[in-house]
Design a protein that fits this description.
Blueprint (H helix, E strand, L loop, with lengths): L1 E9 L3 H19 L2 E6 L3 H8 L5 H9 L2 E6 L3 H4 L8 H11 L4 E7 L12 H4 L3 E7 L9 E3 L4 E3 L5 H17 L3 E6 L5 H14 L6 E6 H10 L6 E4 L1 H15 L6 E5 L5 E4 L16 H13 L3 H16 L17 H14 L1
Parallel strand pairs: 1-2, 1-3, 3-12, 5-10, 8-9, 8-10
Antiparallel strand pairs: 4-5, 4-11, 6-7, 11-12
Helix pairs in contact: 1-11, 1-13, 2-5, 7-8, 9-10, 11-12, 12-13
The structure holds 3-isopropylmalic acid and manganese (II) ion.
């Protein structure tokens, strides 16, 4: 297969983990004789510094012309600590999502054997947890009308029926491919937007009789994720709830550095880690490249390259088993491998298996 991949490394640890993600894609391409090319493009604080905007037009064009975008992370503390900053790196990520029409964010939450001890939750609770959060990504409070002055401020949680229907279709398709259990997470006891979600979901339920659909308020869901994460198979929720619940989900896996995601919709799909740019670790060769590498596996799988995706996953599992791990997930007393060493080990495994 011929693939042209836009590479948006962004800020902080982004460039370091991206280097490993790209090395892994190259190793897989070599192994399966695919013709993969990479086109780097600016985004985030790196783009603001160079051209004054976090998602330059040229980057948009590169993304539109690519088959997929491999994205690392954006964010820089120099903007976080300046409430008057008019442009922020995160706006670049939001602009990319909106302009590429990436309304469906797929965030799998899994445990890894041998890493269960890293979860702050008890082994017997997280063991076997394996679910996917489908987060709506281009609507809700993130993009609804906003207002702010010195005395008041608001963000509007705006959703249309069409937006709800299309994300529910994605969620039902996932449920059909998995254990056929969908949990619609909302706050329909308080929010009008959630009542629309629930109304639309109730209407669609009948179209998927093989799927067991249940409804859960978001406060209850956040609790259930901690006491019985194995309850969930596919959960679907609006943008803000999904943002919050997936950070919570990372505690089930044990480290934010392990969770990949895919964002799909109208134009070029984007594959990116759930974690952020971790500026404090930038340049130190300590960031975990696994989430970026697993994002590359999701990218392969998106193109129907199941064997390629599976090989990446096996290579990651083998690295974890061999204790070739960055400090965030290393066992006590274990050697601390750097970002580069972990990436090279995984790419090496792919080349030889
Ligand atoms: C995420 C991030 C982003 C979000 C930020 C960086 C804008 O937290 O991808 O979850 O809130 O969507
Ligand atoms: Mn988030």
């Amino acid at each position: 297969m011929k693939l042209n991949i836009a590479v948006l490394a962004g800020d902080g640890i982004g460039p370091e983990i991206m280097q490993q993600g790209v090395a892994v894609v190259k190793a897989v391409a070599e192994r399966f004789a695919h013709d993969v090319s990479f086109t780097p493009a600016l985004c985030g604080a790196a783009a603001i510094d160079r051209v004054g905007t976090p998602f330059p037009e040229e980057t948009f064009t590169t993304c539109m012309n690519a088959d997929a975008v491999l994205f690392a992370a954006v964010g820089d503390p120099k903007f976080d600590n300046d409430p008057t900053a008019r442009v922020r790196p995160e706006q670049g990520l939001l602009a990319m999502r909106k302009r590429l029409g990436l309304f469906a964010n797929i965030r799998p939450v899994q445990t890894f054997t041998g890493l269960i001890h890293k979860s702050p939750l008890k082994d017997e609770i997280v063991s076997g947890a394996d679910f996917v959060c489908i987060r709506e990504l281009t609507g809700g409070m993130y993009f609804g009308e906003k207002y702010q002055d010195d005395d008041k401020a608001y963000d509007t949680n705006y959703y249309t029926r069409e937006e709800v229907e299309r994300i529910l279709r994605v969620a039902y398709d996932y449920a059909m491919k998995r254990r056929r259990h969908l949990t619609v997470v909302d706050k329909a006891n308080v929010l009008a937007s959630s009542r629309l979600w629930r109304q639309v979901a109730k209407e669609m339920e009948g179209l998927y009789p093989e799927v067991k659909t249940d409804y859960m308020f978001v406060d209850n869901a956040s609790m259930r994720m901690l006491v019985e994460p194995t309850f969930f198979d596919v959960m679907v929720t609006e943008n803000t709830f999904g943002d919050i619940l997936t950070d919570e989900g990372s505690c089930i896996s044990g480290s934010m550095g392990l969770l990949p995601s895919a964002s799909t919709g109208i134009h070029t799909p984007v594959f990116e880690p759930v974690h952020g740019s971790w500026p404090q670790a930038a340049g130190k060769d300590i960031a975990n490249p696994v989430a970026q590498i697993l994002s590359a596996a999701m990218m392969m799988e998106h193109f129907g390259l199941a064997a390629e995706g599976a090989l990446i996953r096996r290579a990651v599992d083998a690295a974890l088993d061999a204790h070739v791990r960055t400090p965030d997930i290393q066992v006590e007393g274990g050697q601390h491998y750097g970002t580069r060493e972990v990436g090279a080990w995984i790419a090496g495994y792919i080349a030889t298996h």
